[in-house]
């Protein structure tokens, strides 16, 4: 207890107290006075007695310090004094302090916020048990590296593989949910019976699917997502055993999934049901599924791929008509989920890192200038007895103080930046990126912020020390000390500015290339006019329209009902909207009669469209004609093909009137070409244009399709009346996705990713330009201050203002030129690395390089003009007197 009280007294002694100092001074004065009184009684004079008392005491100040050392912890006390002194220094220089803290905070905010995204997507493990054993399993061919699996192939893969402890399949779908308030179109997924077992997911309520529950003969069951259970069924515990009606068929609820369960590759399904393969899906040529497998202990991805490839080759030999050229794809599940966004995230992290580097370089420049101004102060303190280690500790303490304040503000700004970045992503993108849900600070992000702060502390502490070790302390007391300081600055500070300009050039060129890519992406030739187009998704209740004629009649009534709405010019339906397809959407294998068949699959996009589809899109007819509404199942099969289809398979000839199909897959599939249309962008904006066939909807009606309407007025105002008109035909129809074609294009994953990248890198580049120009301004301004006598002498000897302008701008121009040249070289290399993010733009795009060079050069020279103007206005007499 005694030691604890002593320790507490020492700790409280760290903080200065006026009362304690007064008591100490009074006690020492009392001891001195008592000694003086004794000496005076012994016959000595008062002056002699006082001198003897002080000598006996060992000096008043030394005694006070010895007493303080016994009543405190000296190291902590001196550290506190250093922090107090550093804080006073910052208060005396608020402009410097605010500038340094703001630069560090901005650089840290950008890097930490982007790292949080990188951590969520690329570093954090998938939220499943032993995620390193989970792999994505798919087929592949020469055209598609990750293709759907046919159900029979899946069964064979599951039976013959030796590398998976379990292998299951899934696919997204939609259902019409019958509710008291009416029919609603909801998202769903069909999965094999062991899907959740493979992922390691256990329902929080009820049970998983049992073995064999995915067979057609099993009772219909469904598992709810947690959000669906909460929002649609009020988190009722008695939901188990209840019946929900999905697309007219009753299904029993057997389980509820955990709150945090997400499976990005399937989207956000509300209802999970066993797959129950239909007759059409039992065909080996019908590819509808993706696989997910759990590797056995000790099995690598490479070994799994080799095993699956061997099985695929065996199936190819066994079923050549359907499996020719069909291989296997096995990659980590995490790679399948985040692989497409990895290049963008790494690019953004690199951009944020470069911005942070520029900020640190700028701060280092400011610290060098400030330390140069404090050379005399440092020299005086050294002359008064301060050791070199004591001076070093003072500079380190001031650096830590700046970093601490900057880090606090940086973390606060990063939290806000994370929210802003999330808003840059469209809702559709976020639905496919569940790993970004609940994005927040965690141990990884805080550790990254700590590392950044530590590196900044090292830089901010070490930079002022350069001057401390590069010259004798006595030089700081001489008038010529500014010369040595100026030499130090020219050697190091100028190089820092060149580095700043080069980094800014890299970011500016990257932003320019991404911006140009986005511009070209959004202006890619779509093959149709997207303005004034409204669209929505429709799901027809199958049980109410079991016959094709009934489904066709319903669609005709919908189109007729919508066509008479005010402002509607035309209406049509399509099985898949343009630009909407993931990959290529629905494809089909075809052959050409009379041509030799080499066994290789010929695969093209396939779309079912109504008669007015091309007119509604305002597509361009190149040859032949469009469909008519009378071309139904009673008429011969016909097709309209795309321009790329015609060029690829009918080069140099007119395809109209020719036949094609796939008699091996379907004997009645032969159809005659009646027209050729200009290519329509069917898949993502940056994807290659595939040959496409368009078939009459009336000859093969779908039960899930998109309604597309061209309006003479604002298409946004048409959306509510469209939904009402469709439900007016049949309230049981499911409707979702009411939007405009323009918004659909702008919010597409490709456009959103490119837009986000361009905006973010553009923001980094803007800050980099500003910081680098400020850095150059600081260099030239300091150079002018160091050369005041030289400029005064030159002007006194007859140099005119133009010569002074040339002297200063020449120095600035050489720094700018070096930075730009180095930046161009680095920028071309950087752009080559990020070429996967560029669309229609080369890494060495001359116009972009010239534009950025002119922009940076102009901004740099404008910043240099101000100190050059100040130098040219120097009065030579005053300049010589100032020295």
Q: How would you describe this structure to a colleague?
A:
Among the domains are: 2-72, no CATH class; 75-125 and 347-366 and 385-465, no CATH class; 131-332, no CATH class; 541-732, no CATH class. The chain contains 28 helices and 22 strands. Strands 1, 2, 3, 4, 5, 6, 7, 8, 9, 10 and 11 form an 11-stranded mixed β-sheet that branches. Strands 14, 15, 16, 17, 18, 19 and 20 form a 7-stranded mixed β-sheet that branches. A hairpin with a 2-residue loop joins strand 7 and strand 8. Helix 7 (151-160) crosses helix 10, helix 13 (342-373) packs antiparallel against helix 18 (481-522) and helix 18 (481-522) packs antiparallel against helix 27. The radius of gyration is 38 Å and the shape is elongated.
Shape: elongated
Approximate helicity band: 40-55%
Q: Which whole number gives the mean pLDDT?
A: 81
Count of DSSP H/I helices? 28
Radius of gyration: 38 Å
Strand content: 15-25%
Uncertain parts? 479-485
């Amino acid at each position: 207890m005694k030691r604890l009280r002593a320790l507490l007294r020492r700790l409280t002694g760290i903080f200065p107290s006026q009362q304690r100092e007064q008591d100490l001074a009074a006690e020492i004065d009392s001891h001195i006075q008592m000694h003086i009184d004794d000496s005076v009684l012994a016959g000595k004079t008062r002056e002699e007695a006082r001198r003897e008392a002080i000598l006996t005491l060992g000096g008043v100040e030394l005694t006070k310090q010895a007493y303080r050392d016994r009543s405190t912890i000296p190291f902590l006390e001196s550290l506190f004094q250093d922090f107090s002194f550093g804080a006073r220094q910052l208060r005396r220089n608020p402009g410097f302090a605010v500038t340094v803290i703001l630069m560090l905070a901005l650089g840290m905010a950008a890097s930490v916020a982007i790292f949080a995204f990188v951590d969520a997507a690329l570093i954090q493990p998938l939220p499943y048990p032993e995620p390193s054993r989970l792999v994505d399993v798919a087929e592949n061919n020469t055209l598609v590296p990750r293709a759907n699996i046919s159900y029979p192939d899946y069964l064979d893969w599951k039976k013959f593989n030796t590398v998976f402890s379990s292998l299951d399949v899934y696919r997204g779908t939609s259902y019409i949910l019958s509710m008291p308030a009416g029919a609603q179109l909801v998202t769903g997924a069909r999965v094999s019976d062991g899907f959740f077992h493979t992922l390691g997911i256990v329902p929080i309520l009820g049970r998983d699917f049992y073995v064999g529950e995915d067979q057609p003969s099993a009772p219909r069951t469904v598992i709810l997502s947690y959000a669906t259970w909460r929002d649609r069924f009020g988190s009722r515990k008695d939901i188990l055993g209840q019946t929900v009606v999905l697309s007219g068929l009753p299904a029993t609820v057997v389980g509820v999934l955990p709150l945090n369960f997400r499976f990005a590759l399937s989207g956000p399904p509300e209802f999970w049901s066993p797959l129950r393969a239909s007759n059409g899906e039992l065909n080996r040529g019908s590819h509808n599924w993706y696989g997910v497998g759990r590797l056995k202990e000790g099995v690598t991805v490479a070994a799994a791929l080799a095993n699956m490839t061997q099985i695929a080759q065996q199936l190819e030999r066994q079923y050549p008509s359907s499996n020719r050229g069909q291989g296997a794809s096995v990659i980590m599940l995490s790679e399948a989920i985040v692989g497409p966004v990895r290049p963008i995230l790494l690019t953004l992290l690199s951009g944020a890192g470069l911005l942070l580097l520029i900020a640190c370089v700028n701060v280092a420049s400011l610290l060098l200038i400030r330390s140069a101004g404090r050379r005399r102060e440092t020299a005086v303190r050294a002359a008064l007895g301060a050791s070199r280690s004591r001076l070093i500790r003072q500079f380190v303490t001031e650096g830590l103080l700046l970093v601490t304040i900057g880090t606090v503000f940086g973390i606060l700004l990063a939290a806000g930046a994370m929210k802003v970045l999330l808003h840059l992503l469209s809702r559709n993108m976020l639905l496919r990126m569940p790993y970004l849900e609940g994005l927040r600070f965690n141990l990884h992000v805080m550790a990254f912020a700590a590392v950044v702060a530590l590196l900044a502390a090292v830089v901010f502490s070490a930079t002022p020390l350069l001057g401390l070790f590069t010259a004798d302390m006595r030089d700081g007391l001489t008038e010529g000390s500014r010369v040595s300081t100026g030499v130090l600055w020219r050697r190091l500070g100028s190089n820092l500015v060149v580095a700043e300009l080069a980094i800014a050039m890299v970011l500016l060129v990257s932003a320019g290339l991404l911006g140009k890519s986005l511009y070209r992406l959004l202006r890619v030739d779509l093959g149709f006019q997207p303005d004034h187009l409204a669209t929505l998704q429709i799901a027809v209740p199958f049980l109410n329209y079991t016959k094709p004629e009934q489904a066709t009649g319903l669609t005709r009534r919908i189109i007729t009902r919508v066509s008479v709405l005010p402002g509607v010019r035309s209406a049509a339906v399509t099985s898949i909207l343009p630009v909407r397809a993931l990959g290529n959407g629905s494809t089909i294998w075809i052959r050409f009669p009379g041509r030799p068949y080499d066994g290789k699959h010929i695969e093209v996009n396939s779309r079912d469209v109504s008669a007015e589809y091309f007119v509604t899109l305002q597509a361009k007819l190149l040859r032949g004609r469009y469909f008519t509404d009378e071309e139904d199942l009673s008429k011969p099969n016909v097709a309209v093909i795309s321009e790329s289809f015609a060029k690829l398979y009918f080069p140099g000839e007119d395809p109209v009137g020719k036949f094609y199909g796939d008699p091996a897959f379907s004997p009645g599939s032969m159809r005659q070409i009646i027209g050729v249309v200009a290519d329509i962008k069917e898949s993502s904006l940056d994807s290659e244009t595939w040959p496409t066939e368009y078939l009459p909807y009336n000859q093969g009606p779908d039960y899930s399709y998109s309604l597309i309407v061209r309006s003479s007025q604002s298409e946004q105002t048409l959306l509510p009346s469209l939904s009402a008109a469709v439900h007016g035909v049949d309230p049981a129809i499911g409707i979702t996705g009411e939007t405009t074609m323009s918004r659909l294009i702008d919010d597409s994953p490709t456009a959103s990713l490119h837009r986000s990248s361009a905006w973010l890198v553009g923001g980094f580049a803007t800050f980099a330009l500003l910081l680098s120009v400020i850095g150059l301004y600081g260099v030239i301004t300091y150079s002018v201050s160091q050369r005041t006598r030289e400029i005064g002498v030159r002007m006194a000897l007859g140099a005119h203002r133009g010569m002074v302008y040339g002297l200063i701008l020449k120095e600035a121009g050489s720094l700018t030129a070096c930075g730009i040249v180095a930046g161009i070289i680095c920028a071309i290399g950087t752009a080559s690395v990020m070429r996967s993010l560029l669309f229609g733009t080369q890494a060495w795009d001359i116009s972009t390089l010239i534009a950025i060079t002119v922009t940076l050069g102009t901004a740099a020279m404008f910043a240099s003009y101000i100190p050059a103007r100040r130098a040219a206005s120097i009065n030579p007499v005053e300049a010589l007197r100032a020295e």
